[in-house]
Amino acid sequence: MKIHFKAKVFNIGSWTIVRLPVSASIKLPSRGQAMVEGKINGYQFQTPLEPDGKLSHWFKIDEPLSRASHVRAGDTVTLDITPLKEWPEPEIPSDLKEALDTHPEAQALWQQITPMARWEWVRWIRSTGKSETRQKRIEVGCSKLKSGKRRPCCWNRNLCTEPSVSKNGVLLDPATVI
User: Would the pLDDT of 173 be above 70?
Assistant: First the structure.
């Protein structure tokens, strides 16, 4: 199902963000993270959508996408997105990769779980701004994987988990960011 909408592009700190209107987000299969492909101003892209903590979603416009699609903060863009059932492999952070390499039983289950489940583990681990908490989550994650747990538990998947652009699980309002 293709979802068509317009949205404003804005900055939060050094990040360039597109927040989906709730009317578009409600058509997604999940209030949590969703993987989509689509077009922004006619340029093809694929990206995970992160929950904003307010029943909608957002995504980061990185420099290559900005350059290729000619999108900048302040623009209003036209988007056509389609949710994907098959998720691509996530980029595994180096600290998590090193930990998995030293825990063969955790690594074995990591290889068996779905790419979507791997995205959830990566998202849970990176959802803290504190390096001590991140390291603890990597240790706990390896322990849980080793014991057969296929997904991280006990956290709200509907909250924004990117510490650079959120507070208390809610995407920051660009009007209030100094």
Answer: yes
